[in-house]
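Supplementary Methods S3. Input chains for the assembly prediction are listed below.
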Amino acid sequence: MLELILQTCVNAIIATSFAAIFAVGLMLIFGVMQIINFAHGELYMAGAYTVWVVYAENNLPFFVAVLAAALVVIVIGLLMEVALFRPLRGNMLGGLIVSIGMLFILQVLAVHFFGEGLMKTILSPYRGAWEVFGLRGITVPYQRLIVLGVASGLLALFWVFLRRSRLGWALRACTQDPEAAALQGISINKFALIAMAISAGLAGVGGAVMAPLVVVDPHMGSSVIIMALIVVIVGGLGSLEGAVLAAIIYTFFHTFMTTFFDGVIANILGLVVMMLVLVIRPTGIMGTSEKS
Amino acid sequence: MKTKVTRRKFLAGSAGTIAGLSLAGTLPKRSFAHEEGEVIKIGFLGALTGDLAGWVLPGLYGVEIWVEQINAAGGVKVGGDWHQIEVISYDDEYLGAKAVTGAKKLVLEDEVKFLVMSFTTPVFAAQPFLTEQKMVSTTLTPSDMSPERPYLIAPVEQHPFYLVTGVEWIRRNRPDIKTVAFVTQNDELGMNSLATYAAAFEVAGIEIIEEKLFGFEITDFAPVVSAVLAAKPDMLCLDTAYPDYINLILEQAFLQGWQGPLIGASLDNYPAIIAKTSQEFLEGYIFHYPDFDDPRLQEPDINFTNAAEFYRVYTERHPGAWNAVSWEYAAILAMWKGAVEAADSAEPMDVFQAMKSTDAPHIFGPAAWWGTEVYGIDNAPVGKWPVVQMQSGKPVIVDMADMRPWLAEHQDVLMRHMKDRNVI
Amino acid sequence: MKKASSPWTKGLSLGALLAAVCVLPFIVKPFQLEVLIFLFINIVLVVSFRLIAITGEFSLAHVVIMGTGAYASALLGKWFGLDPWLTMLFGSLTAAAIAYILSFPLFRMKGFYFLIGSFAAGEAIRLSWGRFRGVFGGSKGISAIPPLEIGNINLGMPVPFYFFALAWMVICLVIMYRLEKSRLGLTLHAIHWQDLLAESVGVNARHYRVLAFVIASFFAGFAGTMLAHYLSVISPHEFGLGIMLSVLVWAIVGGVGTFAGPIIGVVLLSFVDESIRAFDEYRPLVYGIVLILTILFLPEGLQGLPARVTLFVRRFWRGGRRETVEARPTGAGVASDRPPPSAS
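Predicted C-alpha cells for the full assembly:
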C-alpha cells in the first residue's frame, strides 16, 4: 500500500508539472488580451506534431524537435494574435468565437497532413524508467523526468522574468489590469505579442515533451483544454502562483481518485472539488479582481 | 463518365467559391464509382469528424478500397447484368439528430440500397425510420440489436462473444494463471467486454482481483496502471478499448515493470508498441484481430476475397491507420455482395431474406444467426473467430475457435454477468 | 438605425413568415424537414441561452441543463410509466430545479469564473450519466423513449412533429419575448449594464440573475424533452461540449444584442453546416473559416448585417459622404461591452 501511495505521488508530481505550464499559458492570454483561447489545446497538438515530423520522421535530435515545436507554435500563435485577436481587441466574445474557429481549422489541417486513425507513436529518446531512489516498485519513466525538468525549468524562468525584469513587471501589470496598464502608457499590442509568444511557446514545448507519452492525434487538444480552464479559474486569474497551486491541488486529487476509485469518478469529483473551492473563494485561490 | 454529382464533383465546383480554401485542390482522391451499368448505391453513416472519427474513418478507407477492387473486377452481378457500386457517406458526428437526418437523406434522396452505420445512439435514433422503410442497416455492436429493430443486423462483429475463445485458450494452455486484473474503458465496448470476460474467467476458474475504469477525458494512464499492478494479478486484461489507449496502457505497464501475460480484444499497430516496449513484453499476448496477410486468412473457408491484397493496398495508402474496424465495414459489404448475388436482387428486403435464409457466410467461415437468448432477435451470426497470439513480434492465428459450444453451455453465466453490469 | 417599421408591416411580415413556414413541410425534402425540426428545438435552446446572457453571464451548463430535462422526462416515463405529456412538464421543471440548486454556487461567481464554473458543474452532471449505468444507462443512454401522441396522431412522425415543434417554438418565443419586454426583462438588462447602480436603487441583482437562469433552464429543459421524445434515444454524448460550443457560436455569431440575433445565428449557421456536408471530414475547416470571417467583418454578429448594408447603400448613394449612422444596434450588445483599451 505504501508503495502504491508513493507511486501515485510520483505520478501526480509529473502530471502537475505539465498541467501547470499548460494552464499558465492559457491564463497569460486571458490576462493580457481578455480572450479565452479555446485553440490553446490545438497549439499543444501542433507542438506534438512538430516533434513527430522533426524527431520521429526526420530523425533529428529530440531537443532540436522541441525547439522547432516552440518556434512553429509561436509563429502560429503570433499569426493568430495579429490576424484574429488584434482586430477584435476588447471584444471578448468575438475573440472566443475566432479561437473556436481556429480550433476547427487546426484540427482539420492535422487530419489533412497527418491523417486520421491511429495515434502517431513517438519513441522517447530516453527509453526505460528510473526506480525512484532505488525503491523497487516505484518507477518513473525517463521521458516523464524530462517533462518534469523542462516544465519546472520554464516555470522558474518565467517567474524570474515576471518578477525581476522591467518587461516582466509591465506584463504583470497588463494581466492584472489591462486598462490601467494602457493608461500608464503600456502598449497592449506589444504586450499581447509577448504574451502570445510565451503562451504559445509553453503550449508548444508542452506538446513536444508530452508527445512520446500521450495520444498524438488531431483531437488531442480537447482533453487538456478543459483541465486547463478549470485550473486557471481555481488558481485565480492573473496569478501565476495561483495557477501552479491549483494545478497541484487538482492533479494530486485527480490522480489519487483515479488510483483509489476510478478514472471517471476522479473526473466527476475533481470538478465538484473545484466548484467547492470556487464557492469558498469565488475569484479563485489567489485571484484578486473579478473580471468579466 | 456518367454525370453524377458525387462528393468530389461538389468539391471541385464549390472550391472556387470558398475564399482561402486552397486545400480543396489537394484533397485526397476518394474515387468511388466507375462508368457503365446502373450503379448500386450504398450508404455510409458514421462519425467522420470529432473524437470518434479516428475509429470510423479507417473503416471508410477500407470500404473505398474494397469498392475499388470489386468495381475493377466488374462489380456486382444482378439479373445477368454487372453493376458498379457507389458509396455515399454522411457525417453523423455520432449524434442522434444528425443520424436521423443522414439516414433520410441517404435512403430517400440518394436511394441507397444498404446502409452501414457505426454503433449505439446514432443507430438507435435512425432505426424507427429505417424500420418503417424496410431498409437493412448494420451495426458494429450486436448489443444494439432488439426486436423493435428487425432489419438492424450485426453481420460481422461478434463482439463481445468471441472474447470467450481467448479465455478458453488461456484455460487450456496456461493453467498456472489464477487471477486477473482489468483496465476498462467506460463505454459500450468496454462494459460489454468486461461482462463477457468476467463470465469467461468465472467459467475458467480465474478470479478477478481488480478492475479500473477510465473515461475518454483521460490523459495519463500512469495512475490507472499503478492501481491494477498493485493488486499483483497473474494476468492483465485490457478489455476492449480504443487502440490508442491500448498502446498507452501497455507502455505504462511495461515501464512500471509488468512482465506477466496479457490478454485483450485487440492489439492494433503492434510494431509501434513493440518499439515502445519490447518483443519479449508482448510475447504471448492473446487477442482477436489478425493482420489480413495471415496465411490462415487466405484459405478457402474465409469469405473475403484476397485478404492479403486488401491489407497491402490499405497499409500502403493509409500508413498507420489499420485498426480493428479497418476491414469490418468492407467485410460487411462482402457479405452483402454475396447476399445480393444469391438473391439476384439488390432490393433491401430480398437481400435481407437471402442473408437470413441460410447460415451466414461470415468472414471467418460459416456461422449461425443468433442473439434471441440475449437480445431477443437472431440478427448476429456467431461462429468462428480467430484467437491470435503474438509470437516473436508477429500476430499468429493460433486457433479458429467456435464460440457456439461455450455459449450453449454457459449462457446463464454470461447473462448473469451482463445483467450485473447493466449491459442488457 | 433602421427605418422605424410600423407594427402593421412588422405583423404582416411575421405573418407571411409564419405562413411560409407552414407550407414548408409539404415542399421540402424529408431530410430537410428533419433539419428544420431540430432547428426549431435549437432555436428554443439558443433563445433561452440568451435569456441568461442578457444579465451579463454566459452559462456553459446550458446544454447539460437541456439534457437534465431530457433525462428526467425519459426516466419518469420509464420508471413510472407516466404519460409523455406529463413527463415533459416534469422534465422541464426538473431542469429548472437543478438550475436553481446550481445557482447557489454559480452565482457567487462572475464573468469568466461563472463561464468556467458553469461548465464544470454541467460536466460533472454529464459524466455522472455516463458513469452510473444502473440509473442513467451509461454511455449508451436511454432508448425506446415513447413518442408523443395527440388523440391518435402519432407525433413521432415528421410532419405532425414539425407542426408540434413549430407551435411550441412559437409559444416559447412569444413567452420569452414578452418576458424580455416586461418589467422583469428591463431589470435584467439593467443589471447587466450597471450592477451597482441597479443595486443602489434597491434591485437585488443576484435574485434577478437566478430568476433568469431558472426560467431559461426551464425552456432549455423543455427543448431537451422535445428532443428526447422525438429521437426516442438520448445519451451523454448528445449533450457534450461540442453541442455547447455550437450554442455559444450560434448566439454570438448571430449577436446576443437583440432577440432576433441568436435566431438568425442558428438558422444561418445550421444552413451553412448542412450545405457543406459533402466535405465530410473537411467540413469543420469550412465552418471555422465562416465563423472567423463573420466575426472579423461583423463583430456585433449577423444581426448587425441589415444595418451595415443600409449604411453601405446610403454611403454609396451619397457619393461616399460620411454618415454618422450607428451600425451597432442598441440593447445588451456584448460586443460593445468593453471599450477597447486603446480607445482612451
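The longest helix of chain C spans residues 205-231. DSSP finds 14 helices and four strands in chain C.
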